[in-house]
UniProtKB/TrEMBL annotation:
Keywords: ATP-binding, Nucleotide-binding, Transport
The family this protein is said to belong to: Belongs to the ABC transporter superfamily.
Domain spans labelled ABC transporter: 5-234
InterPro entries, alphabetized: AAA+_ATPase (IPR003593), ABC_transporter-like_ATP-bd (IPR003439), ABC_transporter-like_CS (IPR017871), ABC_transporter_ATP-binding (IPR050763), P-loop_NTPase (IPR027417)
Organism the protein comes from: Roseibium aquae
Record PROSITE patterns: ABC_TRANSPORTER_1, ABC_TRANSPORTER_2
Gene Ontology molecular function terms on file: ATP binding; ATP hydrolysis activity
Domain of life: Bacteria
Name used for this protein in its record: ABC transporter ATP-binding protein
């Protein structure tokens, strides 16, 4: 099956000479949730804006559902719903009217049942006759999502959808993304909240300095780059790590009661068996132990540091 979005050698250079995108190539699979991660200024919003037709590329090609997004803009754009970080709206317009108007912008006939369903899914139905200016910040964010869904897009871009919102709305958004995915909608998500990507994404892409530095299935990424830690709670306080254990790279807590050992999950041998043997030989005993897997945030931070 061909990708629903295909970006080929995409470049964006501004008049100032700043190159925001440097030959970016990326395929998005139909029906997946793709998380695009990157530090501030990495090119996330520029990439999304270019695919959505809000920014004209300097070079390269973009295809959405087989439509060339530059030469066949109207057909490509109709497949896309965009939830930006902010969008100016008429403050006195009713909630239901602005959502219905968004559908009409694409030349589609009115569909009251659909608008009602969208507003109910986003907990906005009770506010349908309220002016936009009366909504809270969280409700306005939900309204942006409703407007983006009004024309039934096959692809939904969520640019920092939960930045600055409360935990309840964040979890509501996660639930909505799951529902949309079940309906076959392809979702591209940019976020500063790494736990969002860890919670929702099928694949993860990392962009930095205008370049895609990694694209990988989330589970495989965490398997390949994940690092585990073995934490040992000691029976007695330890003043310093004995020289016989120096090769393990152990970390001793400030209170002297915890030793931490990091190891590569891809390695043929973890070294844990030898470590435990050498601890016993050094007379170090422990009451408890546990292992933890590095999070997607740990992996992301490490990748960006490597490229710095």
């Amino acid at each position: 099956m061909p990708p629903i979005i295909s970006v080929k050698s995409l470049r964006k250079q501004y008049d100032s000479g700043f190159e925001a995108l440097k030959s970016v190539s990326l395929d998005i699979v139909r029906g997946e949730v793709f998380a695009l991660l990157g530090p501030n200024g990495a090119g996330k919003t520029t990439l999304i804006s270019t695919i959505c037709g809000l920014v004209r590329p300097t070079a390269g090609e973009i295809f959405v559902g087989g439509h060339n997004a530059i030469t066949d803009f109207r057909a490509a754009r109709q497949m896309i719903g965009l939830v930006p970080q902010e969008m100016p709206t008429a403050p006195f317009e009713k909630v239901i009217d602005t959502v219905a108007f968004s559908r009409g912008l694409f030349g589609l006939p009115s569909k009251p049942a659909l608008i009602e369903e969208i507003l109910k899914d986003l907990t906005l139905w009770d506010k349908r006759d309220n002016p936009i200016m009366s909504l809270s910040g969280g409700m306005k964010r939900r309204l942006l999502v409703a407007k983006a869904l009004a024309h039934e897009p096959a692809v939904l871009f969520l640019d920092e959808p939960t930045a600055g919102v409360d935990v309840e709305l964040r979890h509501d958004m996660w639930r909505l993304v799951g529902q949309l995915k079940d309906r076959g909608v392809t979702i591209i998500l940019t976020t500063h909240y790494i736990e969002e990507a860890e919670e929702m994404a099928d694949r993860v892409g990392v962009i930095n300095k205008g370049e895609i530095i990694l694209v990988e299935e989330k589970a495989e990424l965490m398997r390949k780059l994940g690092r585990k830690e073995l934490t040992l709670v000691l029976s007695e306080q330890l003043g310093e790590i004995p020289g016989s254990l120096a090769g393990y790279g152990l970390e001793l807590s400030e209170d002297g009661f915890t030793l931490t050992y990091g190891y590569d999950t891809r390695a043929e041998r973890t070294g844990i068996t030898h470590l435990l043997t050498d601890l016993a030989a050094a007379g170090i005993r422990f009451n408890d132990l546990n292992t933890t897997q590095s999070s997607l945030e740990d992996i992301f931070v490490d990748l960006v540091k490597r490229q710095a």
